[in-house]
Structures are given as C-alpha cells and as structure tokens.
Design brief:
binds FE2/S2 (inorganic) cluster, 2 domains, Rieske Iron-sulfur Protein, 29% strand
C-alpha cells in the first residue's frame, strides 16, 4: 500500500469513528417499555390497596359520631313491686372520631300512669346536673337549682324547661333493656343530640 492509499484509508477510518460518535435519534427500547408498564402496574396496585386504608382512616369521621346500643337493666321481675324509682347503673360506650369513651350512667326505672315500666335519664334537662331521687320528699330534686320532678319524671317546679327525659326501652327474654341517649338541655322539647 502506497502513502496516498494509506492516507485515504486513515481518513475513512476517522470518518467512520466520527459517525459512530454522533448520537442518533433515540427510540424507546423493549426494556424501557416494560419498565413503563411495570411503573403503571405498581401505581395502579398501590392506588387499589390504599382505598381500604383510606376508608378505614376516614370511617370515624364519616360515620355517626355516636352509636347507641341497648343496655341491660335487669329482670323485669325485679321491678314488679317497686314503689319508688329504682336506680340502675349502666355502661355506655361512645365513639367520637377515633376515640372510644366508656362511662357509667345512672338510669331510673319507674312506672308510668298505666303501670308500664319506663326508664328515665338522670341528666337534668336544665344544665345537665345529675338528679337524685329524694325518698323523703317523694320527688326527684336536682341539687344544682332545685328543679323538682315527680316519680314519673314530670316537671313539678324549678328552672328546668321540661320533664326528665324518658329513654327508649324494650323487654327481651324477660329482661328490661334501655337505649341510652343524650338530649339537648335548656330547650322545652326533647331533642336527641347523641
Ligand atoms: S341543672 Fe338541674 S335544676 Fe339546674
């Protein structure tokens, strides 16, 4: 090979190297397409899995803040001969958002005008004090502002705007059950608030 041919050959080699160094148009290869599919799949699965978690997290906020349950007051037989209101303590569970509160509430079992068993809330409808039964007076007498109520819960005197609040009852297998609820204070009509 003479000098001229060598030079031409060298130039051809350099040109070929320049061509190889020049970046051409980039097409997504099979790997990047699979990567994209995997990414979409992972995002979709993540979104699907997060739905129950989000629902679980929001449930206390979206659900009713308080669920009312039935509590047992005892055998109806126990109350067959009562002559004055009988106090019973029940355990009430309340749910407020994510918090669960358990408290003990006093309920009075008494008799209505036609002799049927009734349950009264001991929370005063005036400002919420707990009303005890006063055996000597034969009345419920609220210690806060001396509101007085008859044995069946009717308002006798004082600042309370209405009678004591009657709770829903039912008899199940010979046992008296009560559904405990809270009522708005300072209003003349009974309004459930929880
Ligand atoms: S809170 Fe009962 S009379 Fe005022």
């Amino acid at each position: 090979m003479d000098g001229k041919a060598k030079t031409m050959n060298h130039e051809l080699v350099q040109e070929r190297e320049r061509e190889l160094d020049t970046p051409g148009p980039v097409f997504p290869g099979r790997r990047s397409f699979l990567g994209m599919l995997l990414g979409i799949g992972a995002v979709s699965v993540g979104a699907l899995l997060s739905v129950p978690l989000v629902r679980f997290a929001l449930h206390p906020v979206l659900a009713r803040t308080t669920e009312t349950a039935w509590s047992d007051l005892g055998e109806t037989e126990e109350f067959s001969s009562i002559t004055s209101p009988a106090k019973r303590l029940i355990t009430v569970e309340q749910r407020d958002g994510w918090r669960k509160m358990v408290s003990e509430k006093a309920v009075y079992v008494t008799r209505g005008a036609n002799g049927q068993l009734r349950a009264l809330s001991s929370i005063c409808p005036h400002l919420g004090c707990s009303i005890p039964w006063n055996e000597g007076k034969g009345q419920f007498v609220c210690p806060c502002h001396v509101g007085a109520f008859a044995p069946d819960g009717a308002l006798i005197s004082g600042p309370p705007p209405r009678a004591m609040d009657e709770l829903e009852t039912r008899i199940e297998d010979g046992r008296l059950k009560v559904r405990y609820q809270y009522f708005r204070q300072l209003v003349p009509t009974k309004e459930v608030i929880a």
